[in-house]
Structures are given as C-alpha cells and as structure tokens.
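quick q for whoever's on today - can somebody do inverse folding on this one?? i tried earlier but teh output was garbage lol. tokens:
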C-alpha cells in the first residue's frame, strides 16, 4: 500500500467535478482537557447522481458529520474545521442566514426520527407548504396544491386529507414519507438521509429505499446515505466510507467492499449480518466489545482493542489512510496495519448474493 494525498476518486461516470467535497472535516466537542473529537479529518466526495454511504456503529461520527455539513451543530461548545465545498463554495464559511437560504433549496436532510422532526401541533400541510413558501416564493394556495402533489409523489394515499392531519395521526412510514416530501419540495441537488429506515418495518423500509433510488436515478440528485445497516448499503450505495472512532478506515466501491473487505472492522460488520443461507441455529460473529473500547488515534489504531488481526504496531503507531493496492477495485483507501487477506464470509455467504440484495 502507498500513502495517498487524500485525493478522491472520480464520479460515477469517471470524471467531472464533485457537487460536494468534504476535506479534513473535524468536529471537536468541548475545550481543553475535556475536549472530544467526534469527527477526525474526514474527507470524501459526492458527485451528481451518486449515492455515497457513511457506515459504522452508533458513535462513529456519521450523524455529526452530516450535521456539520448542514451547519446544524450548535454554535457554542464545539469547534468545526476543514472544508465543506458545495459547488465550490465553502459552507463552513457562510453566515447563518446564507446557510438557511441554502438548506431546503440546494441541500436537504431527512432525519432519523420523523416524529421528533415534525412539529406536533402544526398540520402536515402547513409544514410542507412552509418550505415551498420560504424557498420558492409560492403563495399559500399554490404551496398547498404543490404539497398535495409532493405527498402523492412519495406514495401517501389520500394526500388532501393527510395534509389536514397532525403528525401523530400518521403511521411511522407515512411520517417518514412526509419528511422526504419536505426534503424534495425544492428539488435539492444534495440530499442527506440519516438512517431514514431505522424505525420502520422491512416492507416500509424497502419502499422508502426504492423511493430514494428512484430520486437519484431520475433527477440526478446526489445522495449521502448514513446507516449502520449493510443491507441498505448493498441495495443503494455506489461508494462506501466505513467510519470508526471519527475517522474513515476504509473506502471502496460497493461491489469491491462486499467482494473483499480489507479492514477487520468492515469484515466484522459483514460477518455479523444474518443471512437466509445460514444454517438454522448457526451463531453470528459480532464484532467483540463496544465503541467505548477504543484507544486514542494519537497512540495507535482506535480499533485495536476489538481487533482479531492486531499486531504490535496497532498499539504504537497511528495507521494512515492510504491507497490499498492489494485490494480489488480502483481508488480504494484503507487505514490498517494488518489488513484482511481473505473474505471472512464463507462460500455459503457469497458476496455476489449479498451485493444484489434489495432491502
């Protein structure tokens, strides 16, 4: 493996400028001795029409990364540095009023919990129409009509009646669809989905993911999918960034990642997934320990206490994010002293089956 300058692979078509370029994004909570780095020099790109996944366990920095991109972290008590270039403009350098103009119009976000993201005392129609009035200058009547069209587009039955209802009167799937409708209201060029299917049953999950896939295909919207579910990654993402301890530890195209995971953490995530081909009663192989069992990146590899491939260097030297010349695929990056040489999945859990999985 050779060290890289953190240049990013080209887009899906093999060229063109990225819509979003995140460079050395760092988010630190608190100051002094109690400071905690939640996101540590994260870099990645998203091109128009591309779906990029941010994957990892809870606490690895996925959601904080998305909130920093959107400018939604509280101004007090944290420090954000690096660059977030949207169409060449650094979002981190914009004033709050400038960011408010961008949010909803050019970039939008679907949050994990729709019930807490919607105002419980305001009818759904008012909330959807407000986005259109604020960013597209529509009048009240025109915005209500367009809100009906949007709810119908995301598959909510009887949209006219639903617009008069309050969030608690809708099912979880309908609330999530309503959030997607609000996010799509102004046809944003970049959409961030933060675990949008976590609280939904598998049937509704499949419908929501199909809706997002259709959005990217038809409109060329760039999508960042934040998830801990590798089944979602297999069915949706083009490129995958695996995060651990606030850092990217592996980056690869989806097919290459499932065909041969190189970082032990990625291999552990894949091995812990139940599959239909498993023999009944077979135990899963979860990643041992928890995200709290880390060592500081300054002193070695944060994943070392949980790693089955640990070597002496893991406790003394911080691994750099380098080009992985030994792994399949081009533009693959890896942060590991002792990468996996073989796919930890057995023959009966073939990656070809997994990567074609549609959640």
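ok took a stab at it. sequence:
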């Amino acid at each position: 493996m050779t060290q890289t300058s953190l240049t990013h692979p080209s887009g899906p078509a093999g060229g063109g400028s990225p819509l979003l370029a995140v460079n050395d994004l760092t988010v630190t909570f608190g100051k002094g001795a109690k400071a905690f780095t939640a996101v540590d020099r994260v870099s990645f790109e998203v091109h128009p029409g591309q779906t990029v996944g941010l994957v990892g366990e809870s606490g690895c920095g996925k959601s904080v990364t998305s909130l920093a991109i959107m400018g939604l972290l509280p101004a007090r008590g944290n420090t954000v540095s690096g660059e977030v270039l949207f169409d060449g403009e650094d979002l981190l350098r914009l004033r709050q009023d400038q960011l408010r103009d961008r949010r909803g119009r050019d970039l939008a976000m679907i949050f994990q919990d729709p019930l807490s993201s919607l105002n419980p005392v305001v009818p759904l129609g008012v909330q959807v129409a407000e986005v259109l009035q604020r960013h597209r200058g529509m009048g009240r009547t025109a915005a209500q009509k367009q809100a009906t069209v949007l709810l119908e587009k995301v598959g909510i039955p009887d949209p006219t009646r639903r617009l008069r209802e309050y969030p608690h009167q809708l099912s979880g799937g309908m609330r999530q669809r309503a959030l997607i409708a609000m996010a799509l209201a102004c046809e944003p060029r970049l959409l961030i989905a933060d675990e949008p299917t976590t609280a939904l049953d598998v049937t509704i999950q499949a419908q929501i993911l199909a809706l997002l896939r259709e959005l990217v295909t038809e409109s060329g919207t760039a999508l960042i999918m934040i998830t801990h579910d590798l089944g979602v990654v297999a069915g949706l993402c083009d490129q995958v960034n695996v995060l651990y301890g606030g850092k990217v530890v592996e980056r690869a195209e989806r097919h290459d990642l499932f065909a041969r995971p190189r970082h032990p953490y990625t291999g552990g995530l894949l091995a812990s997934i139940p599959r239909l081909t498993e023999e009944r009663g077979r135990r899963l192989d979860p990643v041992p320990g928890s995200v709290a069992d880390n060592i500081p990146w300054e002193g070695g590899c944060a994943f070392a206490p949980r790693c089955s491939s640990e070597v002496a260097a893991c406790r003394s030297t911080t691994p750099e994010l380098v080009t992985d010349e030994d792994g399949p695929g081009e533009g693959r990056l890896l942060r590991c002293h002792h990468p996996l040489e073989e796919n930890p999945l057995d023959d009966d859990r073939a990656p070809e089956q997994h990567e074609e999985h549609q959640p």
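fwiw The first strand starts at residue 2 and ends at 3. also The chain has twelve helices and 13 strands. so keep that in mind when u check it
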